[in-house]
Specification:
The radius of gyration is 19 Å and the shape is globular. By secondary structure, the protein is of the alpha+beta class. It has helices at about 5, 40-50, 95, 105-110, 120-135, 155-160, 175-185; strands at about 20-25, 30-35, 65-70, 75, 90. The chain has a five-stranded mixed sheet with strand order 2-1-5-3-4, with helices on both faces.
């Protein structure tokens, strides 16, 4: 096999990929980075920007611990590349609220004891915020009883279905559902 046949797969171990200069809007701040173009958004947030709230769980998009909001929609940050999000608004758990000014969903998780070890909690909260926006927009789920209705009934089954991409190894699910329900029914603002 010649050098031209091997391409990128034939790079020597010492050869580095060319870095990409990018600007990300994260939590209402523009941040400039130089990253390998193969860097996931999760790794850019954690390793380059030191935003440790977004967790690395499975690194395969199956647990939801890395969920962030991109342009208001929930996304598993381990499954998307940082270079793809230069013109997007990215919100992590740190951008939703802080200890002195919690987001209503953060406050609901505390009030309803919607966490135990806390590892999945940032992803659960970001996912719940995005999920409620989907409900407000009228997007049905697999569990939606009446897809023709202009208003989706947010039953416990509906909440569980919509949150099924976020795993809690401590099984705090009843409290997570209660926290989301509290906000959906006009809980603490």
């Amino acid at each position: 096999m010649s050098d031209s046949d091997t391409g990128a797969a034939g790079r020597s171990h010492g050869e580095m990929a060319q870095l990409s200069a990018i600007e990300l809007s994260v939590n209402d701040q523009v941040r400039r980075l130089e990253v390998d173009p193969r860097t996931s958004l999760l790794d850019a947030l954690r390793e380059h920007l030191r935003l440790s709230g977004t967790k690395k769980g499975c690194d395969h998009g199956q647990c939801g611990a890395c969920t962030v909001l991109i342009n208001g929609r929930r996304v598993n940050s381990c499954l998307t590349l940082a270079v793809m999000h230069e013109d997007d608004e990215i919100v992590t758990i740190e951008g939703l609220g802080d200890p002195d000014g919690l987001h209503p969903m953060q406050r609901a998780f505390v009030e309803h004891d919607g966490f135990q070890c806390g590892y999945c909690t940032p992803g659960q909260i970001c996912s719940a915020v995005g999920m409620l926006a989907e409900v407000e927009a009228g997007w049905p789920s697999h569990a939606t009883a009446d897809v023709a209705s202009p208003r989706i009934a947010l039953t416990d089954e509906e909440i569980r279905e919509r949150m099924s991409g976020n795993i809690c190894r401590c099984a705090a699910y009843p409290n997570i559902v209660a926290a989301i329900r509290g906000i959906a029914e006009g809980g603490p603002e």
